[in-house]
Amino acid sequence: MAKIFQVSARAGMTRVVEPVARGLLRAGVSPNAVTVTGTVGVLVGALGFGARGHLVAGALIVTVFALTDLLDGTMARMSGGSTRFGAFLDSSMDRIADSAVFGAVAYWLASQHDHSGVAAALLCLAAGGLVSYVKARAEGLGMTCNVGIAERTERLLIVGVGGLLTGLGVDPALEIALWLLAAVSIFTVGQRMAHVYRQAQLVGRE
């Protein structure tokens, strides 16, 4: 099944990102520095703004800095490929950023006594962690797992749009986005587990 945001859309983003990546590399900025900067930016947007109820500012800041995921990857490719530490750092920073985003959302919703929204945010946090873990575990066992309807970029954009609309006065948008995200995240976990199962079955027949 295709991802929510198709390959053509990602390719369009890449064409925008590549000139920026080249400029940063020429300036001596490393992909790892961009990875860390992006995470710090997400933390500021989520904890400094989103958790305090400034949803529009928080959503915009998080979205802008979350896009560094495309930037650091492009820079790594242009500079000869990601190092082992670079890949480890990128994955670790992603988990920190995701935890901050959904933790901040859950905190704000709890302050609004929105128990259903809190449950949805915590479910998104858990399911998002599973999406990443299943892929990492499969790759650690020598199998591929680059499938799923909602990867990290899609998940952050969905919650970002929900937060932005709620901040603009569309009150149920964030909770709707969270329940939608929880559903597609759980579905993605199932997709990845099924994909790995099929690979394991084929290996067993060899």
Query: CATH-wise, what's the superfamily?
Result: CDP-alcohol phosphotransferase transmembrane (TM) domain
The CATH topology annotation reads as: Four Helix Bundle (Hemerythrin (Met), subunit A)
Q: Give the number of DSSP strands.
A: 0
Secondary-structure element pattern, one letter each? HHHHHHHH
Pathway: Phospholipid metabolism; phosphatidylinositol phosphate biosynthesis; Lipid metabolism
Family: Belongs to the CDP-alcohol phosphatidyltransferase class-I family.
Organism: Micromonospora chaiyaphumensis
GO cellular component, one term: plasma membrane
Structure commentary:
- By secondary structure, the chain is mainly alpha-helical.
- It has a single domain (11-204), classed as CDP-alcohol phosphotransferase transmembrane (TM) domain (Four Helix Bundle (Hemerythrin (Met), subunit A), Up-down Bundle).
- Helices cover 80% and strands 0% of the residues.
- It contains 8 helices and no strands.
